[in-house]
Amino acid sequence: MPIYEYVCRKCGHAFEHLARNLSDGAGKCPKCGAARPVKQFSSFAAMADAAAGKVCDSCPTTTSCPSAGRGHCCSGACRH
């Protein structure tokens, strides 16, 4: 079941909605109750299996690693 991200048109609250089927959209904002929140484009997260020698898709190089300099990335599987 996919998780979709939405933003309320009225109050600007960002929230996630677990869709149980293709027609299951977020009906209203959980914060203010306004109808028809806007579905957002979002990316997905991919984790790596460090024990199997696979690296995380979100940080293929040192320069693009979001955790470079902090000593970890993608559960320690980053190539930096």
What would your notes on this structure say?
- Helix content is 0%, strand content 15%.
- The protein is mainly beta.
- The chain has 2 domains: 1-42, Rubrerythrin, domain 2, CATH 2.20.28; 46-80, no CATH class.
- It has a 3-stranded antiparallel sheet, with no helix packed on it.
- Strand 1 and strand 2 (14-18) form a beta hairpin.
Short structural description:
The protein contains no helices and 3 strands. By secondary structure, the protein is mainly β.
List strands and helices in order, with pairings:
Elements: E1 3-7, E2 14-18, E3 38-39
Low-pLDDT segments: none
CATH architecture of the largest domain: Single Sheet
Which strand order spans the largest sheet, edge to edge or round the barrel?
2-1-3
Major sheet size, sense and barrel closure: 3 strands, antiparallel
CATH class of the largest domain: Mainly Beta
What series of H and E elements makes up the topology? EEE
Instruction: Return the domain count.
Output: 2
| Bulk shape | globular
